[in-house]
């Protein structure tokens, strides 16, 4: 399915009006997820890597424990439905989150809040051994941005990626920043990829929700062009995650666990 569409617009530029112009805009696609024939939720997303999104979302939200709980997934793109057959479902989480409509906005539409108890269930990353040189961070961010073609065309999506200490391994984009990370998570689960030596790279703000999703994926370092929130920094410190923001033009801010960034002086 197409992830962008052409729309007519009127452009105003330095006092000049240009009519009947065309602009590429991001596509919004509602996907309704059914688990064992019961409607769970409708997610508004970008229509690609939908199976990764479904698996990542269900696992991240605690509806299932992981890919081992999924017997089958059927995506019907023409109607916007995902049918999941699962051999295990966390009934509490499934009922608690039943029949929600999750918009693509970046506010608190996912959940009223990710409570501290959610983070307390996560693994501490104090033993993460991966480390990065500053020049590696700048190169990874440059490669990540070059791969963000849909953003450059539309300006209307968020981008997330997974890196090793040497290169960007994969990228996913979505109109919803949470969705982009769920697509990364879903891919890792399906591929059985080891992530304890991997890095999350992200285009947007590191909020507490994004920090928790990074922890759930299993990565001990997150890199971003944007800033973290106060709560995200506190949680990163508690969980042992290195959060690096404002990575631009060979500058960066290291907000937590700076020992993993190999600075000489």
From TrEMBL:
Any Gene Ontology biological process: Mo-molybdopterin cofactor biosynthetic process
Compartment(s) where it occurs, according to its Swiss-Prot or TrEMBL record: Cytoplasm
One GO term describing the cellular component: cytoplasm
InterPro entries: Cytidine_deaminase-like (IPR016193), FdhD (IPR003786)
Keyword Transferase: no
Functional note: Required for formate dehydrogenase (FDH) activity. Acts as a sulfur carrier protein that transfers sulfur from IscS to the molybdenum cofactor prior to its insertion into FDH.
Name of the protein this chain belongs to: Sulfur carrier protein FdhD
Organism: Listeria aquatica FSL S10-1188
Gene assigned in the entry: fdhD
């Amino acid at each position: 399915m197409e992830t962008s569409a052409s729309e007519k617009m009127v452009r105003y530029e330095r006092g000049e009006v240009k009519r009947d112009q065309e602009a590429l805009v991001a596509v919004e696609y509602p996907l309704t997820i059914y688990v064992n024939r019961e409607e769970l939720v409708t997610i508004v997303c970008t229509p690609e890597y939908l199976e990764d999104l479904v698996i990542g979302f269900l696992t991240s939200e605690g509806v299932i424990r992981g890919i081992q709980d999924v017997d089958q997934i059927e995506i019907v793109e023409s109607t916007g439905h995902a049918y999941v057959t699962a051999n295990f479902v966390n009934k509490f989480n499934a009922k608690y989150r039943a029949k929600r409509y999750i918009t693509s906005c970046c506010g608190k539409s996912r959940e009223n809040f990710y409570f501290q108890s959610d983070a307390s269930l996560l693994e501490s990353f104090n033993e993460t051994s991966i480390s990065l040189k500053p020049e590696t961070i700048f190169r990874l961010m440059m490669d990540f941005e070059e791969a963000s073609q849909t953003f450059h065309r539309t300006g209307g999506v968020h981008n997330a990626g997974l890196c090793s200490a040497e290169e960007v391994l994969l990228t996913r984009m979505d109109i919803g920043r949470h969705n982009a990370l769920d697509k990364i998570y879903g891919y890792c689960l399906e591929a059985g990829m080891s992530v304890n030596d991997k890095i999350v790279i992200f285009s947007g703000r590191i909020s507490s929700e994004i920090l928790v999703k990074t922890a759930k994926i299993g990565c001990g370092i997150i890199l971003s062009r944007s800033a973290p929130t106060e709560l995200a920094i506190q949680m990163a410190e508690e969980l042992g995650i290195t959060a690096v923001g404002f990575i631009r033009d060979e500058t960066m801010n290291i907000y937590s666990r700076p020992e993993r960034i190999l600075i000489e002086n």
